[in-house]
Design goal:
heterodimer, A: alpha+beta, nine-stranded mixed β-sheet, four-stranded antiparallel β-sheet, 19 strands, B: mainly alpha, 13 helices, globular
Chain lengths: ~550, ~300
């Protein structure tokens, strides 16, 4: 209905319905303005106020979104941190120090007993611990029924990503506040405690909440007993946590946690420097560390647990089948060159398959004393290659993740190995693809950055035949296709004497280094930054959830 | 007109279906596994396989496609593969933020660009024109995300005049507005550079026309000649440009939302991409496609109102 203005003026009956250009333009402006208001209006409807409380902590995390708030599936750092604030375990790692344990939902440490030939650990639960309020389930008291249900879920392959760790365990409610865990094979406290702490499958979930929300529902509706309860979740934006006022250790000092998903590192930094954030996950990069340390209104936290970077060598690949070749690769590599990639402020060189802070790890001096440190010696590398019948070296095709820490390490390895005649052709892929491809045996040399909570889990995941990628009974991360220490790992698992267990683990590490199926490079600590107004409430030494640990003692004092 | 609009909408259907199909295919060609992405680096092969089965990713691609298109026809965008939430709700949550950003940016781009272009044409080759040309050259040369970072460093970090990141607290419209200014200015100023150039060129072209000379000869005041005769006759290329820029702004809003850590469809899309959340990613791209079709249609219709020579 296009009518020119003059014509419509002549035709009175159409005057009010015709659209002139002028009227169109004025309407267009009006519609644009209305659109702007309409676009904005949902934001102004404060049906659920999200006004940040003055005493709430605003924290920028490095991922794009919540993966899952089901603690028995949580694996990414952003998820581990969230569930750490919401749930408890029977025991917990000491806040800020993952090397020690203390009771959490349990009133004390359990003592193992042997009953009918089986090891039994009995936990006595705290009384009066309340679950968070949720839309479907009113708060109720935690009992042994919840604990048994939760541990059974952890042990169930269909309902947990960590079920393998709970094989051979049964769980019994002895009374309302007592739980018995029966082990088919005995375990030392070193191995048992991490399975019932506030980590992975050890987090205790509410039976009624899981049943009410279902497995899909609990991914975004966590109901725990921890210091913070879910306020709301805005996908790919943030999770708002509120204080659990009836928390068993007292009212949290924070009014809440505004936990924001910010995948862009520079945006997080700008948000912190601009005062919109109180804490952020930083970058494992010395230049970034120096930059933040130079700002007087910010504090930098560098703490463990560090993630170890190790090169795994697939001994089934023709070029790497001979031990001399694998040792030649080790002698051709220089840990100092690798460490320079992240800087000594963030990382440290490692010499043993297990990181230095893991109970049972070989110490640096022990490795050196046995001559297994493979100190750089490129002449020796060349002679070993000649001995193996490949004096001129050989070529390998590898993929690397696009993530800086991986790409930098692969490129450094490429340059270093070229000096002894080993040519590496690198292809860069995105990070999820990298993980998918290395699990399909694409790389003869795999660089992997990882942390595992115990020596048993670390050795079993990376060096036990059952964990061999593609061909193992339970394919995991044994990229080397190694089976030389299976008996030692299995023996250590059922060894109840802590010292004997540690000796077995050390023996396994020596064998791994002798066979050179893995070349340990370095570990990189966690790097976080915060405003000076934030006090996490504990010194930061090592946190297994790989974030600073926000709990009831954390506070923020904005000027 | 009605027939024209209906015809265009009907024509848009196969385009829409084609885009949906291409998007569906591209998303699945992308390397990476949503199950692996969801469970993280530490997940065992068994756990990844179990999750793949639970998410339906082990079904044949054709079945997944049919399920998606049928759902789309019913207005069902599916559920996020990662968090299990309704994608429709996620889109509904994020859409207002993107609309808000692009509409305000469009307003800034137009309100700055058109007067600057007219001013440049009226002061051809004099100082204001030269300043305008240099400024627009700067705007044309700088990527939106980089301008955003510069604005943050100046106005948020140094001057502390505006917030650096976020979209503000819902309870406070003033806070929302404060959070909107820098990102909208980022997009708007980049757009203004192009609008200035187009407007200047169009107005210069019109100023040399006989009817403008006649209007001047009649003794009409200069502002009337400029606004009623010259600017109106120059509007066609500007309207075209506004249409194109509306689409471009939606595209640029992706990087701007990331730099300013704002919620919105762009942030949602990048998050879905990083997590290999197929359903969310497809849905955002479908919404974007819908935008492009509607904006193109609206631009075509607008021509008829702006230029009396065009009739449908």
């Amino acid at each position: 209905m296009v009518r020119r203005g003059r014509r419509s003026k002549r035709n009175g009956s159409r005057r009010h319905t015709a659209v002139t250009r002028r009227r169109f333009l004025s309407r267009a402006v009006g519609i644009a303005a209305a659109g702007a208001v309409a676009g904005a209006s949902p934001l102004f409807i404060a049906s659920r106020s999200r006004a940040a409380a003055a005493n709430a902590l605003r924290f920028g995390q490095s991922e794009a979104d919540l993966g899952t708030a089901d603690p028995h599936y949580a694996a990414g750092t952003q998820d581990r941190a969230l569930v750490d604030m919401v749930f408890n375990g029977l025991l917990r790692f000491k806040p800020g120090d993952g090397s020690g344990f203390e009771p959490d939902l349990a009133v004390d440490f359990p003592k193992p007993a042997v009953i009918a030939g089986k090891q039994v650990w009995t936990f006595r639960l705290r009384k009066g611990v309340l679950w968070h309020r949720s839309e479907k389930v009113p708060p109720y008291e935690l009992t042994s029924e919840d604990v048994v249900y939760s541990l059974q879920k952890s042990a169930d392959k269909a309902r947990s990503a960590y079920s393998g760790l709970y094989t051979g365990m049964t769980f019994q409610a002895l009374d309302a506040y007592s739980v018995g865990i029966v082990l088919d094979s005995p375990m030392s406290a070193n191995l048992f405690y991490p399975l019932v702490t506030n980590y992975a499958g050890g987090f205790i979930m509410a039976k009624r909440a899981v049943e009410a929300y279902g497995l899909e529902g609990v991914k975004t509706r966590p109901v725990g007993t921890g210091p913070f309860t879910l306020g709301r979740y805005d996908p790919k934006e943030r999770v708002e946590l509120l204080p659990h006022v009836q928390y068993m250790r007292g009212h949290p000092k924070l009014d809440g946690v505004d936990y924001r998903y910010m995948s862009d590192a520079f945006s997080r930094e700008l948000g912190l420097r601009g005062g919109q954030l109180d804490g952020i996950s930083g970058q494992q990069d010395e230049a970034w560390v120096d930059k933040i340390q130079a700002l007087s209104n910010l504090r930098l936290d560098i703490f463990g647990v560090g993630e170890s970077t190790v090169i795994y060598m697939n001994q089934t690949v023709p070029q790497l089948r001979r031990k001399e070749v694998r040792q030649a690769i080790a002698y051709a590599l220089d840990r100092d060159e690798f460490l320079a990639l992240i800087g000594p402020k963030v990382g440290r060189k490692i010499y043993a398959p297990l990181s230095p802070f893991t109970t049972g790890a070989l110490a640096e001096k022990e490795v050196i004393a046995k001559g297994l440190d493979y100190k750089i010696n490129r002449e020796k590398a060349k002679s070993l290659l000649a001995e193996a019948g490949v004096p001129g070296g050989f070529a390998l095709d590898l993929v690397t993740s696009e993530l800086k820490i991986y790409k930098d390490h692969y490129e450094s390895m490429q340059a270093q190995l070229a000096k002894v005649g080993i040519q590496i052709r690198l292809r860069v892929v995105d990070h999820p693809s990298y993980h998918a491809l290395i699990r399909k045996d694409t790389n003869p040399l795999v660089i992997y950055v990882a942390f595992r909570p115990t020596a048993e889990i670390y050795l079993r995941s990376f060096y036990h035949a059952a964990s061999t990628v593609v061909t193992g009974a339970h394919p995991d991360t044994n990229f080397a296709h190694y089976s030389g220490v299976d008996d030692l790992i299995d023996k250590a698992r059922v060894e109840t004497s802590a010292s004997a267990q540690i000796e077995l683990w050390k023996e396994a590490q020596v064998k791994i280094l002798q066979d050179m199926v893995a070349y340990p490079i370095s570990y990189a600590n966690q790097v976080y930054a915060r405003s000076t107004a934030v006090d996490y409430g504990h010194p930061l030494k090592s946190v297994l959830a790989l974030y600073p640990g926000i709990d009831e003692t954390t506070r923020v004092r904005r000027g | 007109m009605t027939r024209y609009v209906l015809g265009r909408l009907l024509f848009a259907l196969p385009i829409f279906l084609g885009v949906v199909t291409i998007v569906f295919a591209i998303v699945r060609v992308l390397p990476g596994d949503p199950a692996q992405a969801a469970l993280g680096d530490y997940a065992s092969g068994d756990a990844v396989a179990a999750l793949r089965q639970r998410l339906g990713l082990d079904r044949p691609i054709a079945l997944q496609y049919v399920g998606y298109v049928v759902g789309l026809a019913r207005g069902d965008l599916g559920r996020s593969l990662i968090n299990g939430g309704l994608v429709r709700d996620e889109v509904a949550h994020n859409l207002p933020y993107t609309l808000q950003l692009t509409v305000v940016a469009l307003a800034i781009g137009t309100l700055v660009g058109v007067p600057a272009g007219v001013c440049g044409a009226l002061t051809f080759n004099r100082l204001p024109d030269s300043i305008g040309r240099v400024a627009s050259l700067f705007g044309l040369s700088i990527p939106a995300y980089y301008l955003g970072i510069l604005l943050i460093l100046l106005f948020a970090i140094q001057l502390r005049a505006f917030p650096a990141v976020g979209a503000g607290e819902l309870a406070s419209p003033a806070d929302v507005l404060r959070h909107l200014i820098l990102p909208a200015a980022t997009l708007g100023l980049v757009m203004a550079a192009t609008v200035t150039r187009f407007t200047r060129s169009a107005v210069l072209n019109t100023l040399g026309q006989d009817f403008v000379r006649t209007a001047r000869a009649k003794g009409l005041p200069r502002h009337l000649v400029t606004v009623r005769h010259t600017l109106r006759a120059s509007l066609i290329p500007i309207v075209s440009l506004a249409g194109l820029w509306s689409i471009g702004l939606i595209g640029d809003s992706v990087t701007t939302e990331i730099v300013f850590a704002r919620p919105g469809l762009g942030s949602m899309m990048v998050g879905a991409m990083l997590q290999r959340d197929y359903t969310s990613l497809q849905s955002v791209m479908v919404v974007y496609t819908g935008f492009v079709i509607v904006i193109n249609l609206a631009t075509d219709i607008a021509y008829g109102f702006v230029d009396p020579r065009i009739r449908y």
